[in-house]
């Protein structure tokens, strides 16, 4: 065991606390840092997932829906995963409607508060306010967190981190001060964290790590023989057997609720939403991805919103040069971690924290994505503790140069975060940046093609769709995009040729059939268009666009009854489908002179209208 706190934290324990208002300065500084580095994100509109989660989400438009979000219904109670984010959106919508500024302010405030919790937790565990502050400051300003903070949809990661850290602090106080209310509040916080994002299920396990370091970083009594790590762990587990047993039961219960009693998560894994996904990845690939995570935390160069299989090069055979670099980073970090565990210093704590909170993303929890920067939000705290401890240790030898370097690092990271925020200023900027950072990614090229097509720039859209197909010939959505881009350019022969070639390989794809129908409709061949639209909904009965398009054709034929049926079927499959709602309102007003029903559907359309 260590003879003094210096071998644990890399710096002598700082048990003194500033008196009066000065004790508030470190926390206020962290909140100010969060506001400064994310201030330019406040003016951003809703982008990407925000559109569906806020603007098109009917559930968040009334506070009356909150019990249903949590899981209460006429049939009783059922577990709903990730409901805390929807509840927070509902509260904000009740306050300001669909004004994005408040949603961004909430994210930034949560990020600052999470930084404050990091400061309090690490300061208490290490008894060093210096280590706590620098760990929190690196966390607050680091650009790796922009996806969670600048993207409104990142709220689930913020809430999971907030509740997890609050639970850790409550449990730490319970072990030192007692109070059953602290244990109850900690349990509630863990529940809220898990139902914000499932990785919070690791909170009780991480508490064992926190508790061990909080207890055994104490200097030993002079002359007392040192104990082995195994003996220390054995005695500690025995002393805490009741508390740890309770937390183990809580973890099993919450994990079972997520996996077995919620309809939102399947043991078979989430279905892939990206055509660029591979069938599986091996241990070597996972190790390389872990290396990417560590590399981005140590040096955030080459960030991207796209880390799909093709972006990583996992769809290509053999070892890629980038994978070798990432593996080297991983091996170096692993050596540092093992050394820290042997010496029982903060390198060991940092590595264990990172691994425990990142573990769910390595396959324990089924994800449809290989990697995303938001996966690092909670786990990154461990790395920042390690970096801060190393810096403080170096400052004991070269205090002034290291202090200056630390200030420079904070400024540089803050400036990088301000710049990175601009990526989330629009869907166009989002995917243009992805293509710039990873030009060989099929998914990114397809996505930026969609953005250009929506912006009525079919030439650029066609260029990127073709690039996506060149990278990944089996990318069906990109092939359909090529046909749509040709249609927008009025090159109908090329559009039909592309569609027919695609349908030869994928004859049952509803989107491709819908695109073919639209081309025929544009050319005035309504019979062929209707046949293709019907085939599209036959192949995919949940395909709302096909029903909406059929409704439009029936209106042209004067069959208003069937048109209304088609529009209603489209809305049933997609309640936020603005075009179907407006089309239905038009039929009732102009075709049936039913102003009351027309006004009803117009109001529904207005509520979900998206201004891009």
Q: How would you characterize this protein structure?
A:
The chain is mainly α and 612 residues long. It has 2 domains: 6-14 and 31-266 and 277-423, no CATH class; 542-612, Alpha Horseshoe (Serine Threonine Protein Phosphatase 5, Tetratricopeptide repeat), CATH 1.25.40. Helix content is 68%, strand content 1%. It has 30 helices and 2 strands. The protein has helices spanning 6-9, 25-38, 49-55, 66-70, 83-96, 100-126, 129-141, 146-149, 155-177, 180-194, 203-216, 229-239, 241-260, 283-298, 309-312, 321-343, 346-358, 380-395, 399-421, 427-437, 442-454, 458-471, 476-488, 492-505, 510-522, 526-539, 544-557, 560-573, 578-591, 595-608, and strands at residues 72-73, 76-77. Strands 1-2 form a two-stranded antiparallel sheet. Helix 17 runs antiparallel to helix 18 (380-395), helix 21 (442-454) packs antiparallel against helix 22 (458-471) and helix 21 (442-454) packs parallel to helix 23. The longest helix is centred in the N-terminal third of the chain and has 27 residues, at 100-126. It is globular and about 85 Å long. The termini are far apart. The model is unreliable at 1-13, 218-225 and 265-275 (pLDDT under 50).
């Amino acid at each position: 065991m260590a003879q003094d706190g210096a071998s644990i934290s890399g710096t002598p324990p700082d048990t003194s606390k500033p008196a009066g208002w000065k004790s508030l300065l470190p926390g206020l500084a962290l909140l100010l840092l969060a506001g400064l580095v994310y201030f330019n994100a406040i003016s951003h509109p809703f982008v990407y997932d925000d559109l569906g989660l806020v603007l098109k989400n009917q559930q968040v438009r009334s506070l009356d829906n909150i019990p249903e979000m949590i899981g209460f219904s006429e049939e009783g109670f059922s577990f709903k995963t990730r409901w805390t984010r929807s509840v927070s959106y509902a509260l904000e919508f009740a306050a300001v409607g669909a004004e994005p500024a408040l949603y961004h302010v909430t994210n930034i405030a949560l990020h600052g508060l999470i930084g404050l919790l990091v400061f309090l937790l690490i300061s208490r565990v290490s008894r060093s306010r210096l280590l706590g502050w620098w760990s929190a400051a690196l966390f607050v300003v680091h650009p790796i967190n922009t996806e969670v903070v600048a993207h409104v949809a990142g709220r689930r990661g913020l809430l999971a981190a907030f509740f997890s850290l609050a639970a850790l602090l409550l449990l730490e106080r319970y072990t030192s001060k007692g109070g059953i209310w602290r244990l109850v509040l900690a349990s509630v916080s863990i529940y809220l964290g898990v139902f914000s994002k499932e990785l919070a299920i690791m909170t009780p396990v991480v508490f064992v790590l926190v508790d061990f370091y909080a207890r055994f970083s104490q200097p030993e009594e002079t002359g007392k023989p040192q104990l082995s790590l195994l003996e220390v762990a054995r005695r500690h587990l025995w002393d805490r057997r009741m508390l740890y047993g309770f937390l183990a039961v809580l973890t099993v219960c919450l994990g079972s609720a997520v996996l077995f009693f919620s309809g939102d998560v399947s043991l078979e894994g989430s279905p892939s939403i990206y055509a660029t996904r591979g069938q599986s990845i091996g241990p070597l690939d996972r190790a390389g991805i872990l290396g990417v995570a560590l590399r981005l935390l140590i040096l955030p160069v080459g960030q991207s919103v796209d880390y799909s299989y093709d972006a990583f090069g996992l769809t290509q055979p053999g070892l890629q040069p980038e994978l070798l670099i990432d593996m080297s980073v991983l091996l170096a970090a692993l050596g540092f971690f093992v050394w820290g565990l042997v010496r029982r210093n903060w390198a060991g704590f940092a590595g264990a924290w990172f691994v425990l909170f990142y573990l769910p993303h390595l396959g324990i929890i089924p994800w449809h994505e290989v990697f995303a920067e938001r996966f690092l939000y909670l786990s990154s705290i461990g790395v920042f503790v390690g970096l801060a401890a190393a810096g403080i240790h170096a400052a004991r030898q070269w205090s002034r140069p290291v202090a200056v370097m630390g200030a420079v690092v904070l400024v540089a990271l803050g400036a990088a975060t301000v710049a990175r925020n601009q990526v989330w200023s629009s869907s166009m900027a989002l995917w243009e940046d992805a293509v710039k950072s990873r030009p060989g990614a099929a998914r990114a090229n397809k996505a930026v093609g969609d953005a250009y097509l929506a912006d009525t720039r079919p030439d650029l859209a066609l260029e990127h769709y073709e690039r996506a197909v060149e990278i990944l010939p089996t990318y069906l959505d990109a092939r359909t995009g090529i046909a749509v881009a040709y249609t927008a350019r009025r090159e109908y022969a090329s559009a039909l040729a592309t569609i027919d070639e695609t349908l030869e390989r994928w004859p049952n794809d509803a989107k491709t059939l819908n695109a073919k129908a639209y081309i025929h409709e544009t050319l005035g061949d309504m019979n062929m268009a209707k046949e293709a639209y019907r085939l599209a909904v036959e192949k995919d009965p949940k395909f709302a666009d096909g029903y909406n398009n059929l409704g439009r054709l029936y209106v042209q034929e004067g069959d208003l009854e069937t048109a209304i049926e088609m529009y209603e079927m489209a809305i049933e499959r997609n309640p936020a489908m603005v075009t179907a709602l407006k089309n239905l309102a038009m039929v009732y007003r102009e075709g049936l002179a039913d102003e009351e029903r027309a006004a009803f559907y117009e109001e529904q359309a207005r509520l979900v209208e998206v201004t891009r």
